[in-house]
Specification:
This protein is an alpha/beta fold. Helix content is about 20%, strand content about 25%. The protein contains two helices and four strands; from the N terminus they run βαβββα. Strand 1, helix 1 and strand 2 form a beta-alpha-beta unit. The model has no long low-confidence stretch (mean pLDDT about 90).
């Protein structure tokens, strides 16, 4: 199984990534995020893209996966509604 994980550096995404990497039925995990995970694993590939408001440049690399986890987000703590909505 090949898995795509958006937002693997956040609290939920880190857990999803960890479980995917230890699962023997998962042969490949590719993360998509604004910054690298800093994890090193033979099954892990990373697509770092600072502006995830458009994924068009990454589109050719986003096909062929069996599962996708979308854990991308930001914390609303201390953030105005307009700033949170923009993200």
């Amino acid at each position: 199984m090949k898995v795509l994980v958006f937002g693997a550096t956040g609290m939920v995404g880190q857990g999803v990534l960890r479980e995917c990497l230890i699962d023997p039925s998962v042969e490949r995990v590719v993360t998509v995020g604004r910054r690298p995970t800093d994890d090193k694993h033979p099954k892990l590939g990373e697509l770092v893209y600072p502006d995830l408001s458009t994924l068009a440049p990454l589109e050719p690399q986003l096909g062929g996966f069996d599962a996708c986890f979308f854990t991308l987000g930001v914390s609303a703590l201390g953030m105005s509604e307009s700033a949170y909505t923009r993200r």
